[in-house]
Design a protein that fits this description.
It holds the Pfam family Abhydrolase_6. The chain is of the alpha/beta class. It has 12 helices and 11 strands. About 2% of the residues have low confidence.
């Protein structure tokens, strides 16, 4: 695969593939230094006007990705949305710093996300989170009512069985942590049924990997390195499910966060995703005021149904 000109050079190609007929937005990389010295990174998108110049306006939608992904997973959804938006790299992912304590659970991540929203947004947001990002979004909505106008949780519910759908993520990343070329990573993603088309998988791998000084390619996010270390560890207490880096993020504390949120809540689940009919029924029982929408998709709805998702989110903003 060839190296792109810059990280936003894919946008026109993505828009064409998705049949989105509007000028590509201007993309900008944002960086915030947190109190402990770590950095939080994000992408800001400003839609272009019909003349091609950037439109005015602060973000109205904030996006949080899932475990093992990064902010660019939302690119095509944001192209479809057509509104000012930011997408945050969760700690340990993308260009955000890794946590030395490996505490990638929603309530820990929420304070970093809130700091980013304080710095980069001017008004209450439609806060959209998928998977780990969905649980983190719920924690933000519970603790910072002033930041969230609408909460959208995509294909995750608190306490979901980590030995069901999420095992695919664990198995995908529990392998080597470095590779000779990015093409090897693309082949692996496609072998696991991830990424869709080869061009889409190449984009995903480019944004989710980096080239080390020795020329080897490695995953950017911490989860792959944690999963590989656990896979290599001898059997014993350290390999119990409670110590699993992915299982740890799926705890039931999210039910309390959803109950404490004051913003309207929407759950969007893929009919082939991680949230089963039984999970959706439990969600309906525990969060009776929430709306539940089922779409034809797997777990990564933002990558499988980005145009539909963008349109649905635009409706929630009241901009149509």
């Amino acid at each position: 695969m060839t190296e792109p000109i810059d990280e936003f050079s894919f946008l026109a190609e993505q828009a064409a593939e998705a049949g989105i007929d509007r000028p590509a937005p201007r993309g900008e990389r944002l960086t915030l230094t947190l109190p402990d010295g770590r950095t939080l990174s994000a992408l800001r998108y400003v839609p272009a006007t019909s003349s091609g110049s950037p439109a005015a306006g602060s973000p109205v939608v904030t996006f949080l990705h899932g475990a093992g992904l990064n902010a660019h997973t939302w690119d095509t959804t944001i192209l479809s949305l057509g509104l000012p938006a930011i997408a945050i790299d969760l700690p340990g992912h993308g260009d955000s710093s890794w946590r030395t304590d490996a505490a990638y659970v929603a309530r820990v991540l929420a304070s970093d996300v809130a700091a980013g929203m304080d710095a980069w947004t001017d008004g209450r947001q439609v806060l959209v989170g998928q998977s780990l990002g969905g649980l983190t979004a719920a924690a933000v909505a519970a603790s910072r009512h002033d930041l969230v106008r609408e909460l959208v949780v995509i294909d995750i519910t608190p306490g979901i069985d980590p030995n069901a759908g999420p095992t695919q993520i664990r198995e995908f990343f529990a392998g080597p942590t470095d590779w000779a070329t990015r093409d090897e990573l693309v082949d692996r993603a496609l072998a696991f049924g991830l990424g869709g088309s080869r061009s889409a998988a190449e984009r995903g791998v480019f944004f989710n990997s980096r080239i080390r000084p020795d020329g080897r390619v490695e995953w950017k996010h911490h989860f792959a390195h944690l999963a590989a270390a656990m896979n290599a560890a001898p059997a014993g207490p350290a390999t119990e499910p409670s110590q699993d880096a992915l299982a740890a993020v799926l705890g039931g504390a999210g039910w309390q966060d959803l109950a404490a949120a004051q913003a309207p809540i929407t759950l969007i689940r893929g009919d082939r995703g991680y949230v089963t009919e039984a999970d959706a029924a439990q969600f309906r029982e525990r969060v009776p005021a929430a709306s539940i929408i089922t779409v034809s998709s797997g777990h990564n709805v933002q990558e499988e149904q980005p145009v539909d998702l963008g349109a649905r989110l635009r409706e929630l903003t009241g901009k149509d």
